[in-house]
Amino acid sequence: MSFLRYALFTVPAVVLLGILSGYLSNSGYSNAWFRALEKPAIMPPGWVFGAAWTCLYILLGLSLAMLLHAKGAAKRDRAIVLFIVSLVMNFAWSPLFFGMHKVTFALSLIVAMIAATMVLILLLWRIRLVASLLLYPYLGWLLFAGLLNYEILRLNPNAETLVPGTQTINIDAGSNSIEIRQE
């Protein structure tokens, strides 16, 4: 099978699975929990994430197609397994962060994704140089995403228990206590 045939399958598959992961977990600024979090000053506007991830998923799909096309290359099978594991981790991040609000675990997952991507770059370097080079923007974005995830965790130590839209104000006026609850 030619590289083009692989790419016609891998690129749409990676893009669609990435979009599906984000959609099913209500990723982004439409998520009430995420909107309620304090954001770091370096947080880009929402549209940047959609554009960046679309481009990155295309690059990942092309890199995977190049790897699949490299039949007979040493360590190809190991690289394919690591690539798939990396994609699974990537697709799991949005449900973990946006869906389950597990900010700490999501940060740990990004660290694992960074390590896996670095190993994958080294493996691909010997199999298909261009496939390896296509992963550098992804690695850069993972580093940036890791920084954003860390900053959100630092700025919102209660992020995992935050319930958006619910505020309680307790006013103690001596023996009389007033509670105002806003939903």
Could you explain the architecture of this structure?
The structure is a single chain. The protein is built from 7 helices and 2 strands; from the N terminus they run H-H-H-H-H-H-H-E-E. It has a two-stranded antiparallel sheet. The mean pLDDT is 91. With 183 residues, the chain is mainly alpha-helical. The chain has a single domain (3-182), classed as Ferritin, CATH 1.20.1260.
Keywords:
two-stranded antiparallel ribbon, 183 residues, Ferritin, 2 strands, mainly alpha, elongated
Tally of structural domains: 1
Portion in strands = 5-15%
CATH homologous superfamily annotation: TspO/MBR protein
* Shape field: elongated
Radius of gyration: 21 Å
SSE blueprint and pairings:
Blueprint: H1 3-24, H2 32-36, H3 46-69, H4 76-99, H5 103-127, H6 129-133, H7 136-155, E1 167-173, E2 176-182
Antiparallel strand pairs: 1-2
Task: Summarize this entry quickly.
The chain contains 7 helices and 2 strands, in the order H-H-H-H-H-H-H-E-E. The chain has 183 residues and is mostly helical.
